[in-house]
Amino acid sequence: MKNLKKIGAFLLVIITLLIIVVGVFAYTLKPDYSGEKELSDLEKEVNVYYDDYGVPHIYGENEEDAFRTLGYVHAQDRLWQMELLRRIASGGLSEVFGADLIGTDKFFLSLGIADASKLTANNADESDVGVILAKAYLDGINQFIKEGPTPVEFYLTGIDKKEFVLEDVYNTIGYMAFSFAMAHKTDPLLTTINAKLGPEYLNGLHVGSSVDTEWIKNYNPTSSDTIQNNLTASVNKALGALDIPLFEGSNSWVIAPEKTKNGKVIFANDPHIGFSQPSVWFEAHVETPSYSKYGYHIAGIPFPLLGHNRKVAYGLTMFENDDVDFYFEKNNPDNENQYLSDNGYVDYEIITKTFKVKDSSDVVFTYKKTNHGPILNGIADQIQGERPIAMSWLYTQMENKVIDALFGLSHADNLTEFKKALPKIHAPGLNIMYGDDEGNVAWFATAQLYEIPDSVNTKMVFEVGKGLPVDKKFIPFNKNPQAINPPNNYVYSANNQPDSIAGMLYPGYYLPENRGKRIVQLLEPKNDWDLDAASDMITDVISSVDPEIVTNLSKYIDVSLLSENGLKAIDSLKMWTGNYELTSIEATIYNRWVYYFLENTFEDELGEALFKQFLGTHFVKRLIAPLSKDEESVWLDNVNTAGIQEDIAAIVNTSFMDAIISLEKDFGNNMDYWRWERVHSIEHPHPIGQIAALRSFFNVGPFPVNGTREVINNLAFSYDKTGFYKTTSGPSTRRLVDFSDVENSISILPTGQSGNPFSKHYRNQAEMYVNGEFRKMMMNKVEIQKSKEILIFKPKD
Questions:
Q1: CB neighbourhood size of 348 (10 A)
Q2: Do 76 and 159 meet the contact criterion of CB atoms below 8 Å apart?
Q3: Who contacts 450 (Cβ-Cβ below 8 Å, separation ≥6)?
Q4: What are the φ/ψ torsions at residue 197 (nearest 5 degrees)?
Q5: In a 10 Å sphere around its CB, with 0-12 CB exposed, 13-18 middle and 19+ buried, how is residue 71 labelled?
Q6: What's CA 717's distance to the chain center, in Å?
């Protein structure tokens, strides 16, 4: 017994010592928010005040010092995120995570982002102010890499820290640009449907530009069955391999003084991005004698994509224009290394790439390239031996001036200066929203657009010799969609269809009218907007369209077929306002019903695999409303029931009864337990959180959350058979700037400011975000200087 006690005491000592060692180790990995540090190449001292939420307020005597300091403080909170984002486009994920990411690395290397980044960085003008500041920012990152603690993720994955160079900035921008694009998820799938089922089925998907929508108005005072399906699957697999944010949609509106209580512009913006941990934005407030900006930065990019000061505010949403096209190519039957061009058979360009793989030998692979772009066959293992298909993407085909544009936007202090930077954004397509202290409100669609004949369907893979020419006819920027100080005294964007561009409807992957319609519905009648009302609006969870869909569908319901719960459910739905609060029962019933309506309409023709891909596209969201009243749709008949012709009534009734039965199975017969909070949740995943034992440490959540897809508080999910809705994307920040009181403008992040799991700012905004709360974006220097934590950077001798 005594020996057992001795052993127990010994083990207790060992465990205690281990806890102490781990605790001390963890403490050394925490970011420093106070004290003094030396930085090389600083001219003068820079003071960094950290507020209660970990936002650095950087005060420097010149911009170069301030951006060098920004790089350091950004890195100490987000170095791991910077590392991952720069690796995506350059094929560096397999080196971190192993063989499972080989397909992803092949795919992104073949896009040519890394090659374009290298070319742009090599051609950068070293005397350009934007380049000088970008390099100062990178110097700050690299000094943290050299002297600061190593984030825990580097220990867990076994990779070494390496310095950042200008090329990495462009690689991160390139990944961001590709994640904006929708064509890679849509065009191949639609081509498969057309080839497999015919044009009648394609027309029944309502994928074209629609005149029956909520338009964003311009106002300027001046035949293979498998290749396309496999391509879509491979792209989805590449993008979904890691929990890294994808850009999805967004809301923004800017209200002119004529419609506000205090006679000043109110600016609102909530970009919708895939949820991840750390969250995508790093907030930083920078002040020098020549520069003032409270900005939102992406890891590894020196200039903010969103920002404001006392003079201007700007933000973005996704334009959703179509700048990616796919082309079938024809091999020379006598030489597989040649393809048919306008000048006869010519040689493919053969490109060889090599990348590292963790715990394995390097991978060497080759791919072919035509005048349209890379051939994607063979890059993903499932696309072998099919018709060659090339991808043309405008981003890699034009001179890249995006960094110049971001520098210009962040340094503009009035509308004239701001407009000068906009034409430099050739891709990705963005809606840039603007407001200022002079009372101007504006919206600009920024992208290099080009002419597309009406006869060309850009949402299909082009057949050999058809489609758009390689040398496109570009549209001048002043013809892009835009609105400056329109007579309705507001501008907005919700990724919906813009009005005609240069006399034509420009093709794209626009989202349904739901959010746009609700924004207009709220903005139009009210002329006394203030910050409180705007903050209520940005967290609005009412769908303007879903009750209309219920009305369309419910007229086909045969009540004689319904159970007791079915009768209660349909009566309740008919009274529903479209509210997606946590306690809503109708929201749960509606979404189950819509899923089964889609399944019973489409899965018989598409099959399980294609149907799953179909549910993940943007156009499905646009499809539900028109389909709910399309009695002639060819999709309604079940092809598996020979001799029976199903109509919309049959599909609607079957789907409603399926929904009720599934809810009773999941939650019982008492409808009080069918609340939205039981099926709709949010979790912010960290890549290492995929390991079950580490999930609770790295991931944030899950939490039940109100809202849904395509309401203003847009929390997106894809339907599946489970009937549970784990949100994958939503507001990456909710941000409101009131020019009548700029210093009390408000914001929130989904999790926290820091990406370091040992930081107190790693998750301290998560519950506030779920609850629709806000915090101040501090700009008052006297108030900021009262901060308890001050980090002083001094020039290194």
A1: 20
A2: no
A3: 394, 468, 472, 473, 474, 475
A4: -115, -25
A5: buried
A6: 13
333-342 pLDDT, tens per residue?
Answer: 999 899 999 8
The SS3 assignment for 163 reads coil
| Residues 258, 262, 268: CA angle, nearest 5 degrees | 75
Question: What would the DSSP string read from start to end of 502-528?
Answer: TTBPPPB-PPPSHHHHHHHHHHTT---
Q: Which helix (H) or strand (E) holds 736?
A: strand 734-738
Alpha-carbon distance 258 to 38, whole Å? 50
Q: Which helix (H) or strand (E) holds 28?
A: helix 2-28
Residue 425 token pair: 């954004």
- State yes or no: cis peptide before 702, omega within 30 of 0: yes
Taking the C-alpha atoms of residue 594 and residue 358, their distance in angstroms, rounded to an integer, is 44
The DSSP symbol for 592 reads H
Residue with tokens 């820079």: 46
Query: Residue type at 175?
Result: Y
What is the tens place of the pLDDT at every residue in 547-571? 999 999 999 999 999 999 999 999 9
pTM for the whole thing? 0.89
Closest listed residue to residue 267, CA positions, set 713, 777, 739, 714? 739
Q: Which two tokens stand for residue 655?
A: 């789907």
Other Cβ atoms within 10 Å of 249 Cβ, number? 28
Euclidean distance between the first and the last CA atom of the chain, given in angstroms as a whole number = 64
Between CA 129 and CA 187 the distance in angstroms is 40
Domain ranges of the chain: 1-30, 546-577+585-674
Type of residue at 138: L
